[in-house]
Amino acid sequence: MARLAAAFLSGLLFGAGLTVSSMISPAKVLAFLDVGAVADGRWDPSLALVMAAALGTTAIGYALVLRRKAPLLAPRFLVPTAKAVDARLIGGALVFGLGWGLVGLCPGPALAGLSQGSAKTALFVAALIAGIGVHRLLRL
Fold first, then answer.
1. Which tens digit of pLDDT belongs to each residue from 32-79?
2. Rounded distance, CA 53 to CA 18, Å?
3. Pairwise CA distance, residues 79 & 112, whole Å
4. Roughly what angle, to the nearest 10 degrees, separates helices 46-65 and 26-33?
5. Which of 10, 66, 84, 99 is the most buried (most CB within 10 A)?
6. Could you tell me the residue ranges of all domains in the chain?
């Protein structure tokens, strides 16, 4: 039960952070990704600051947490060990990047954005779930 509560609270905190930083707004994300808008002053660099803050927080968090012998609510750490850049990694990154660039949403912000009641976000989440189902069926 403690693991479930920790996961729920972590997700709630993550969703709140995404909401406060406006990362659930496709228009905000697309304004950042549109680097062609730099010349006319429409480019919004604020998302870069959000990403830099997240990177810094994560780096500090990993440095502190990995000093422990084990997580608080699990017997051991599950840290990825793969270092190879293969076709699956590149393909997944391309699909993710294309989706993010075309729609301005990715899975985390889309789930948090469901609280806003947007039909477009709900459609994105439905497509995301369908894509996960197709992936599992095909075992890509």
1. 888 888 888 888 988 889 889 999 999 999 899 989 999 989 999 988
2. 12
3. 25
4. 100
5. 99
6. 2-138
Long-range contacts, 33-37 (Cβ 8 Å, 24+): 33/100, 33/101, 33/104
Which structure tokens are listed for 35?
């680097």
> What is the C-alpha to C-alpha distance for residues 23 and 41, in angstroms, rounded to an integer?
20
Q: Both tokens of residue 47?
A: 């998302």
- The Cα 58–Cα 73 span in angstroms is 19
Rounded-to-integer distance, Cα 99 and Cα 108, Å: 13
For 41, the token pair is: 């002053």
pTM: 0.76
Question: One-letter amino acid identity for 80?
Answer: P
Write the secondary structure of the chain as one string of H (helix), E (strand) and C (coil): CHHHHHHHHHHHHHHHHHHHCCCCCHHHHHHHHCHHHHCCCCCCCHHHHHHHHHHHHHHHHHHHHCCCCCCCCCCCCCCCCCCCCCHHHHHHHHHHHHHHHHHCCCHHHHHHHHHHCCHHHHHHHHHHHHHHHHHHHHCC
